[in-house]
Write a structure and sequence with these properties.
By secondary structure, the protein is α/β, with parallel strands linked by helices. The chain contains 24 helices and 15 strands. The strands form four sheets. The protein has a six-stranded parallel sheet with strand order 9-8-10-11-12-15, with helices on both faces. It has a five-stranded parallel sheet with strand order 3-5-4-6-7, sandwiched between helices. A two-stranded antiparallel sheet has the order 1-2. Pfam families: malic (PF00390), Malic_M (PF03949).
């Protein structure tokens, strides 16, 4: 028994079971080797989120994989596990606590996490993504438990390829990367923006069926200009001001080159929540030679265009018959305007320059000059509405409550069915609420928002607000790119995604005020979008997955990851 007791000799802890690796014999200042067992069995199997099934391991599996005694005796079905976990999540009243519970589950049991998310997508989407993910990013330093994804900072300059090779998965199909400078409507959150790539890729898997192991979240840390974070003792990133100019562009160049060198040219790199001045520059710089997609510019544009196309099923006419007023012309507003102009030019067979005459932007930054019109100066949004008389008012300025009662009443006096899209996130930044839009328009508005709103009852009619959520587009878009082996992303592929989403909206949806189909059928929607995107890639000669499948919708569905448990030998 003496050998099992701990002894302390000269400050060194010894004893216990045999110290084969010398860990206990080492003093605190001596390095030890972090040995790990790689065979997924016994205790290590229960700690492996990809293969862990918790109480769903069968009697035979418990014997075969040395789990006997490591689990309580009951065997539960995956459905029963899901039911119990959903009850547990619902017990938390604070959304951030729900978020943390779901992230813990993802790190513990991957398949159960995705089954829970897929089966309860309408309830849990606002928890794993906007608006809750915004608060999670703000508090990422204090709620940080285990690192998720890959962190590349200025410290790694010159060694990014080496850092990428540290990631355990070698077959990556989709990367979501942020530099944390413009997280939702919350501004510069620096390294704590990692919550965004992690959340987006969870949706790539749950909604688009891309395998979790093929997804890689990355945060590029070039510092932060957020004074609160620089003073925060728990901040997890570099405590320095943001690198800009040549230093910044060299790091991004090295990153893009390393990604291509390590994973090939068919890995989709999705830029996420970069500040406007970098977002447009990076997309323009890399889109010709890399497979890149900016969700804030192209994804938002596609989902809003789909909503506008679907709205016309109620309003009537084609896009070219209407006028569009954008309030706020950052990357989202400008991206939407460009895609709408492109769709008008395709439909009406006119030049993009001619199509832009239907679009007005309330902003005056340089990259909006192409939308400048000959007009008397207009002082404010209300004046713009009265002067321009638009069919649709689209807000993406991040200025909360800017669609006032007067603005919406003016839109309603001009249009029988005014289209009001309040796209800014999170909810506090929304240009107006659903209730305000329906009430001030006397129930006539076709309303969509960036953040979720509860159904609204007006004059005994129940209106279900449509959420113009990018999650309608990017998972299916990414799946389409992956299954076709596309080597570039073009505007025509983004248009195809928008048209594919709009096609899923039925007259019944329109009657309820919905300009998007319900999220409950999101995997069906994603498969249809993927098929449209893949078809366009094949038509343009950009697809490398040959031969072309005969039925692209069925092929997309067959490629989608399903989270049901596998049986183990």
């Amino acid at each position: 028994m003496a050998g099992s007791r701990e002894r302390i000799n000269n400050g060194v802890v010894t004893g216990g079971v045999e110290d084969a690796y010398g860990e206990d014999r080492a003093t605190e200042d001596q390095p030890v080797t972090p040995w790990a067992v790689c065979i997924a069995s016994g205790h290590s199997l229960l700690r492996d989120p990809r293969h862990n099934k918790g109480l769903s391991f069968t009697e035979r599996e418990r014997d075969a994989h040395y789990l006997r005694g490591l689990l309580p005796p009951v065997v539960l079905s995956q459905d029963l596990q899901e039911k119990r976990l959903l009850q547990n999540v619902r017990q938390f009243e604070v959304p951030l606590q729900r978020y943390m519970a779901l992230m813990d589950l993802q790190e513990r049991n991957e398949r159960l996490f995705y089954k829970l998310l897929i089966d309860n997508v309408e309830e849990l989407l606002p928890v794993v993504y906007t608006p809750t993910v915004g608060e999670a990013c703000q508090k990422y330093g204090t709620i940080f438990r285990r690192p998720q994804g890959l962190y590349i900072s200025l410290k790694e300059k010159g060694r990014i390829l080496e850092v990428l090779r540290n990631w355990p998965e070698k077959s990556i199909q989709v990367i979501v990367v942020t530099d944390g400078e413009r997280i939702l409507g919350l501004g510069d959150l620096g390294c704590q923006g990692m919550g965004i790539p992690v959340g987006k890729l969870a949706l790539y898997t749950a909604l688009g069926g891309v395998r979790p192991s093929a997804c890689l979240p990355i945060t590029i840390d070039v510092g932060t200009n957020n004074e609160d974070l620089l003073k925060d003792e728990f901040y997890i990133g570099l405590k320095q001001r943001r690198a800009t100019g040549q230093e910044y562009s060299e790091l991004l160049d090295e990153f893009m080159t390393a990604v291509r060198q390590n994973y090939g040219q068919k890995v989709l790199v999705q830029f996420e929540d970069f500040a406007n001045h970098n977002a447009f520059t990076l997309l323009a710089k890399y889109r010709e030679n890399h497979l890149v997609f900016n969700d804030d510019i192209q994804g938002t544009a596609a989902v809003v265009l789909a909503g506008l196309i679907a709205s016309l099923k109620s309003v009537g006419g084609t896009l070219a018959d209407h006028t569009f007023l954008f309030f706020g012309a950052g990357e989202a507003g400008t991206g939407i305007a460009e895609l709408v102009a492109l769709e008008i030019s395709r439909q009406a067979k006119v030049s993009v320059e001619e199509a832009r005459k239907k679009i007005w932007l309330v902003d005056s930054k340089p990259f909006k000059k192409r939308y400048a019109h000959e007009h008397e100066p207009i002082k404010d949004l209300l004046g713009a509405v009265k002067a321009i008389r638009p069919t649709a008012l689209i807000g993406s300025a991040g200025v909360g409550r800017s669609f006032t009662k007067e603005v919406i009443e003016a839109m309603s006096s001009i249009n029988e069915r005014p289209i009001i899209l309040a796209l800014s996130n999170p909810t506090s930044q929304s240009e107006c609420t659903a209730e305000q839009a329906y009430t001030w328009s006397q129930g006539r508005a076709i309303f969509g928002s960036g953040s979720p709103f509860d159904p609204v009852k007006y004059n005994d009619k129940l209106f279900v607000p449509a959420q113009a959520n990018n999650a309608y587009i990017f998972p299916g878009f990414g799946l389409g790119v992956v299954i076709s082996g596309a080597v570039r992303v073009t505007d025509d592929m983004v248009l195809a995604a928008a048209e594919g989403l709009a096609d899923q909206v039925t007259p019944e949806h329109i009657d309820k005020g919905l300009i998007y189909p319900p999220f409950s059928i999101i995997r069906k929607i994603s498969a249809n979008i993927a098929a449209r995107v893949a078809a366009k890639a094949y038509d343009l000669g950009l697809a490398s997955q040959l031969p072309r499948p005969k039925d692209l919708v069925k092929y997309a569905e067959s490629c989608m990851y399903t989270p049901v448990y596998r049986s183990y030998r």
